[in-house]
Amino acid sequence: MRFPWLILLLIFVPFITFAQYGIVTGKVTNAETKSPLAKASVFLDNSSVGSATLEDGTFTLNGVRPGQYTLIVKTLGYENYSKTILVGREPIRLNIELTPKALMLREVVISSSADWKKNYEAFKKEFIGTNENARECLVMNSHILNITYNPTKQILHADADEFLVVENRALGYRVKFLLNDFKVDKISGIVSREGQQLFEELPGSAAQKKRWHEKREEAYYGSSMHFYRSLYQDKLTEEGFKMYKLNRYLNPARPEEEIIRRKINMFKQQNRRDSANFYIGLANMSKYYHESLVQPPLNQFEVLVSTGQPGLYAIHFSNYLYVVYTKKRDETFDKDIYRPLEMPNFETTVITLYQPYAVFDMNGIVVQDAPLYEGTWARHRLSDMLPVDYVPDQK
């Protein structure tokens, strides 16, 4: 008697699973003439969901994992369009009008090919990374990059007017970036990026896809995406995370980074080695002292805050949040990351909020007031990046 019920279950399970995903449809037109725009790129930022408009300007994005996204529309000769949408089970229908782009003249920066190559290598190091995966990443159109370096402020800046295409042959993705602004502040050590990206699957053999899957799993577990998903689901302990409140204070014996770098450069130019070495010693000191973790570890309710909006969550804490992932080790030395003597060298990240709250969605992506990361997550670059709709194996 059970056999017919089993058949019905096998028939309806695919429909039940599909119903958990959303759909976004719409039409893209010229804001002035109201005529449809064909072949415009339409995608959800930082995801693997994207398409192009048809001849009548319409598009459809199927199978979207629920969560908050930024929908991006781009086509040559028009201003980029972006809109925040919250995808659920109900279909979303959009009418999008693009404004023709005014002709803008870019400031001309004169530099030699040697300077551009040097700056490009610095860009690749900070944008793609330097780990094992980074060695398998290939930039397909580096010539579209506008790269400048300010030696006085020690700031590297890059942007592009077109999609920057990078093939990550370690994870099996072709990533298309709209790089609005990329900045490396060598004095503060802060790397910031503003832009949108779309992930596309690379074609590959069964053996390649198996290797890509293993690499993706490795990149996911212990990542910030994994942490935020575990936090709102209240699964931190079983997923391998621990949170602590970190107490630390600025080291009064260490001058500000800008002063240290200026002194080192000055004394090197004057050939005063002893003075230069003195400030090099100061540079190697930690920025902090009197560091300690408050025991016991924090619980979910001490950090997670309701936003009142479905699918959106917020974190709030005072000072610094110390996040440990106990299922991976990290032997990289970082003078500014405190490690208790009794704690193994697990992957560790210190989170600092710029605003009272940082908002993230159910995909594990910070969508408002992104915090500062120090430690393991701060070293993550394109080579370890996954789309927000990535779903790992259940272990």
What features would you describe in this structure?
- The chain is an alpha+beta fold and 395 residues long.
- It has three domains: 2-98, Immunoglobulin-like, CATH 2.60.40; 113-219, no CATH class; 224-251 and 286-379, no CATH class.
- Helix content is 21%, strand content 36%.
- It contains seven helices and 22 strands.
- The strands form five sheets. Strands 8, 9, 10, 11, 12 and 13 form a six-stranded antiparallel sheet that branches.
- α6 runs antiparallel to α7 (273-283).
- The protein is globular and about 70 Å long.
- Residues 1-19 have low confidence and may be disordered.
Overall number of structural domains:
3
Largest sheet: 6 strands, antiparallel
User: Whole-number radius of gyration?
Assistant: 24 Å
Whole-number mean pLDDT = 87
List the helices and strands and how they pair.
Blueprint: H1 2-18, E1 22-30, E2 41-44, E3 50-52, E4 58-64, E5 67-74, E6 81-87, E7 92-98, H2 113-127, E8 137-139, E9 145-150, E10 155-160, E11 163-168, E12 173-185, E13 190-201, H3 206-220, H4 224-232, H5 236-239, E14 241-250, H6 257-269, H7 273-283, E15 288-294, E16 304-306, E17 312-315, E18 320-329, E19 346-352, E20 358-361, E21 366-368, E22 372-375
Parallel strand pairs: 1-7
Antiparallel strand pairs: 1-4, 2-3, 2-5, 5-6, 8-11, 9-10, 10-12, 11-12, 12-13, 14-15, 14-18, 16-17, 17-20, 18-19, 19-22, 20-21
Helix pairs in contact: 6-7
